Amino acid sequence: MAMSVGGSEGEPMMEINTTPLIDVMLVLLIMFIITIPVMTHAVKLDMPRPNPNVVEPPVPPEVIDLEIDYDGTILWNGTPVTSFATLESYFSTEADKEPQPELHVRANKRTRYDNVAKALALAQRQGIKKIGFVGMEQYAE
Questions:
Q1: Which pTM does this prediction carry?
Q2: What are phi and psi of 73, to 5 degrees?
Q3: Of 99, 5, 108, 113, whose CA–CA distance to 58 is shortest?
Q4: What is the pLDDT of residues 57-88, one digit of tens each?
């Protein structure tokens, strides 16, 4: 192993001794290799067990489309209804179903308010609870 002790002119030695640096790096590398398996151990999780008494999601209710045209014509799922008495009988049979169907009312923009109010009053009197309006985009103009 050769070693330079100084220059002939009495100059100080300007080279760094890398041997201790390499020793420290090797020790740190060995420590890192030893500690990695300790850090990667598995974590035990207690997950909940599936419930055997799971209820099925509810069946979506039937949808009834009630269209009221500008001339007072009422359509029950596309079929014309001749009178309000017939409409009332339809509402009474649908109100007794379980689950109760949803009533989607689509009134034309030019229909009379009286026709819509009569149909909604009949539905309410017969016990229809789920009533909604569809086709409201025609009123945005």
A1: 0.58
A2: -70, 130
A3: 99
A4: 877 889 999 999 999 899 999 999 999 999 99
Identify the band that residue 102 occupies on the pLDDT scale cut at 50, 70 and 90: very high
Judge residue 123's burial from the number of C-beta atoms within 10 Å of its C-beta, 0-12 exposed, 13-18 middle, 19 or more buried.
buried
Strand-strand pairing, 63-68 and 74-76: antiparallel
Amino acid sitting at position 128: I
CA 124 to chain centre: 33
At a CB cut-off of 8 Å and minimum separation 6, what does 100 contact? 61, 94, 128, 129, 130
The pLDDT, as a whole number, for residue 6 is 54
Distance (Å, whole) CA 119 – CA 90: 11
β strands within the chain, DSSP E: 63-68, 74-76, 79-81, 102-107, 131-133
Measure the CA–CA gap between 11 and 38, rounded to whole angstroms.
51
